[in-house]
Amino acid sequence: MTAQAVAKPPVRRDTQQLQPGRPWPLGATVRDGGVNFAVYACGVQRVEICLYDTGGTRELRRIALRERTDDVWHGFLPGLQPGALYGLRVHGPYDPQQGWRCNPHKLLLDPYARALDRPLRGAAWQYAYKLGHDRRDLQIDPADNGTRAAKCVVVDSTFDWGDDRAPQTPMADSVFYEVHVRGFTRQMPDVPEALRGTFAGLASEPAIAHLKKLGVTAVELLPVHAFNDERRLVELGLGNYWGYNTIGFFAPEPRYLSGRDPNEFKRMVRALHAAGLEVILDVVYNHTCEGNHLGPTLSFKGIDNRSYYRLTEDQRHYMDFTGTGNTVNTSHPAVLRLVMDSLRYWVEEMHVDGFRFDLAPAIARSGQGAFEHRSPFLSAVAQDPVLRRVKLIAEPWDLGDYGYQVGGFPTGWFEWNGQYRDRVRDYWRGTEGSLPDFAAALCGSADIYEQSGRGPQASVNIITVHDGFTLHDLVSYNEKHNDANAEENRDGESHNRSWNCGAEGETDDEAVLALRERQKRNFLTTLFASRGVPLLLGGDEMSRTQGGNNNAYCQDNAISWFDWSEERRGDPLIAFTQSLAVLRRELAVLRGSAWLNGEPDADGRRDAGWYSVWGLPMTEEEWTNPAVRCVAIVLDARFAGAPGSSSVLLVFNATSEAATFTLPDVPGHTGDWKLRVLTSEGCFDEKGAAGYAPQAHLELPSHCMALLTQQPEA
């Protein structure tokens, strides 16, 4: 049965000053001495703008938008100034069994709000139905929440960008650094305390100095859109630290602001650009924090639930391709417009350089729910002149049918390569039969990307990222240790392809500790030597640990924050990582954009040649022998298109025994090979590096690799 939800306002309705305004752009737009409001809402009876005092607790005026153009309710309010606080109330049917969830007793966020006045913290008053009622979400809640709800802020977009210029780093030259805005500087002592954990903190000189020293080219920020802490977590004394629970696709998360000025984000971007660093945003358009039919109502649900979300046939429940309870319906024109407007806003207004799309297949599905290259979202992006000039990176999996799409995205897209992660982890933990897949990953994963017409740079190579073990924990734990998450260690991935090197967790065993350090250097050297684009998890360069927690999404504390103690700041791994970044820039052959084929040319030269421990070409029998985990590859610089650059010899030993390699005799390479990296020791400058002639012997300890360089003959 449909209930027409109409609330009696506690303040007078005011329409005397309201002018018709315009249906475009959507949201609250400052213009002509006032503010234009435009809200998309189909099938409702009335949309009201509620204005609040500066504290956001007392409603001052309630204004009904009288004009309606193609399901956009709009009006212009003269005299309203930037900084004004407002919310929406939508009057319409409350009938969850028909997909309607309008409840004007609940103050709603404008989907196009440019800023919020406070962080969102899950609470009972966020729900549109009576919690604890035996009819559950079918029973509307008449309690008003306007006093406690977050308010939208009218924002003046004026900002002096000065001479800001996007770095436009080519993908082949990029090194991504995945980092959390709050966690990065929350304990950084050189940053003023008031700025720690904020956009201003990330833009501070000490923070930028670390990034520049490290040699990365872009920061990939975990979600910065406004998000909600789940009520369950709040009641446990926790919160949603990662931020993959968003609701404000245009609003920076308030808890990352040092004050109340949303332009702080722009100043951060300007500072990072001035340092030559790009800004990539991790964006969550696949779902919102409103959850399933029993979740809260903060915005979309109460405005136009049937348009914004994919509903099941019974209309009450939600299709869930994301594992969060709902899926945003990007096949609907108005919702697709919202997402596209948001993306363009962050590029044109906020000057970001690209996006990483969380659970990207979920937003790339057709109206029928199938992942398709011609889906509304992928089609819209393909023709958009603004988005075509920025980096577009997919997390290429979701939980729906055929949701695993590594290698499945169209040209113009880059992908987090989960298979690269699995293959490299398996090889270095000594899994039998892992060598062929490891070799493919090292060379750019041609088996995944070549047939789609994309090059090696389509693969964003990952070994560790925010969800899962850190690099230090990857080599220190066989099992997850997530007890702090209050889910009895049930959450998080159980199959991590990790190896603790002989002891679980902390140990004082010197042999285990030495092996762990070697393994960390193995992983990092493999990452920086692989074709494709390396992504470094922030903190891995200084052995950041989460104590074995591989799902620290709710740990806004020292478990997740960077440790900037003297011990960690003095970690030799920082200098080692920095040297790898320098080597990658120096050695063009590591950044090649063409696929390797290994076929000899007329002079017997090969772009890549694989060799056994004996210094001879690898045989089919050796490739298929599951016990073989020693191998070497020569990457010939003469195929790199960079005259004067050196060729590279990579030598790998993933066995538990030392191995003596005979260095191969490679056509056009008659001089000494210079040992630049030995993961049992460190990195070496070319001038001081030891030299090895072809056919000389190089001994590698167990679980070790080496990188050597040589200038080939012309």
From TrEMBL:
<dbReference type="InterPro" id="IPR017853">
    <property type="entry name" value="GH"/>
</dbReference>
<dbReference type="Pfam" id="PF02922">
    <property type="entry name" value="CBM_48"/>
</dbReference>
<dbReference type="InterPro" id="IPR004193">
    <property type="entry name" value="Glyco_hydro_13_N"/>
</dbReference>
<dbReference type="InterPro" id="IPR011837">
    <property type="entry name" value="Glycogen_debranch_GlgX"/>
</dbReference>
<dbReference type="InterPro" id="IPR014756">
    <property type="entry name" value="Ig_E-set"/>
</dbReference>
<dbReference type="InterPro" id="IPR044505">
    <property type="entry name" value="GlgX_Isoamylase_N_E_set"/>
</dbReference>
<dbReference type="Pfam" id="PF00128">
    <property type="entry name" value="Alpha-amylase"/>
</dbReference>
<keyword id="KW-0326">Glycosidase</keyword>
<feature type="region of interest" description="Disordered">
    <location>
        <begin position="483"/>
        <end position="503"/>
    </location>
</feature>
<comment type="similarity">
    <text>Belongs to the glycosyl hydrolase 13 family.</text>
</comment>
<dbReference type="GO" id="GO:0004135">
    <property type="term" value="F:amylo-alpha-1,6-glucosidase activity"/>
</dbReference>
<feature type="compositionally biased region" description="Basic and acidic residues">
    <location>
        <begin position="483"/>
        <end position="496"/>
    </location>
</feature>
<keyword id="KW-0378">Hydrolase</keyword>
<dbReference type="InterPro" id="IPR013780">
    <property type="entry name" value="Glyco_hydro_b"/>
</dbReference>
<dbReference type="InterPro" id="IPR013783">
    <property type="entry name" value="Ig-like_fold"/>
</dbReference>
<feature type="region of interest" description="Disordered">
    <location>
        <begin position="1"/>
        <end position="25"/>
    </location>
</feature>
<dbReference type="InterPro" id="IPR006047">
    <property type="entry name" value="GH13_cat_dom"/>
</dbReference>
<protein>
    <submittedName>
        <fullName>Glycogen debranching protein GlgX</fullName>
    </submittedName>
</protein>
<feature type="domain" description="Glycosyl hydrolase family 13 catalytic">
    <location>
        <begin position="178"/>
        <end position="584"/>
    </location>
</feature>
<dbReference type="GO" id="GO:0005980">
    <property type="term" value="P:glycogen catabolic process"/>
</dbReference>
